[in-house]
Amino acid sequence: MEVLRKVSSQNRGPLKKGALEAIYREIMSGALALERVLKIAYLGPKASFSNLAAIKRFGSQMEYIACVSIPEVFAEVEMDAADYGVVPVENSIEGAVTHTLDMLIDSSLKICSQVNLSVSHNLLANCPKNKIRKIYSNPQVFGQCRIWLQKNLPNAQLIDVASTTYAAEIAKKEKNSAAIASLLASKVYGLKVVASGIQDSLHNITRFLVVGKNTASPTGHDKTSLLFSIKDRVGALYDMLLPFRKYGVNLTKIESRPSKKKAWEYYFFADISGHQDDAKIKKALNDLERRCTYLKVLGSYPIGE
Length: 305
Hints:
Distance between the termini: 9 Å
Number of helices: 11
Shape: globular
CATH superfamily of the largest domain: Periplasmic binding protein-like II
Strand content: 25-35%
Structural class: alpha/beta
Number of strands: 15
CATH topology of the largest domain: D-Maltodextrin-Binding Protein, domain 2
CATH architecture of the largest domain: 3-Layer(aba) Sandwich
Low-confidence stretches: none
Mean pLDDT: 88
Helix content: 25-40%
């Protein structure tokens, strides 16, 4: 990630930033593959957005393992069947992916990296738009394309399936059917792109986490993710935030999640700027640990793009 950042900062053209990074990513992927081909587990199937995020992070030369669920991705890495796992954690429109947050609570894996993927949804089919009667996709995707669908295909039946890739697989076999999926899915399943970029927001970004057993070294451009719980009393959360202010640590995100172990008990997920090995971060975390009932550092990792 640091290499890509330096390459981008020195780019004076004619290639755009994205194209240059893609070239260097493939060079690094090929170089790593000469040493040892990494095994990367991801939330499948093939051509899913998690697959795209994994390729964006590791390049195309690695061995990719498609998993049917987020828990399976974690299990593959925990059992050493994969070196790293790639899972979605939040979308800029739909919010947090709760299955991933729940897995982070009990798993021993660390967050090693993050990938921000600009999500572009496409209507794929093997028939003209006016012949489409059914559209298959993931429920979240339908939510992200709601306005376009109401305007362009108000009478089409919207059918929820587990993934956008599975939707493409069905659309390939079923007459007068379409799928909302990635451009990669159109190539894998031989579907035509009837309409591209049909998402309602141009700023539709999904954040993915790379989980593994290694701790990332400081780069100078890092963030640290935390998990903590507090006693149920007035002002408890306010007290938890004081160490960050005291030591000048920037808290960039905080959200709560039911613990599922005790009624009305919550865990808090937080992101802070900096690496857990930074002096002021160490002081803030030591202070925080004295104030809360449970504290877990989920990982420190490069901020990325």
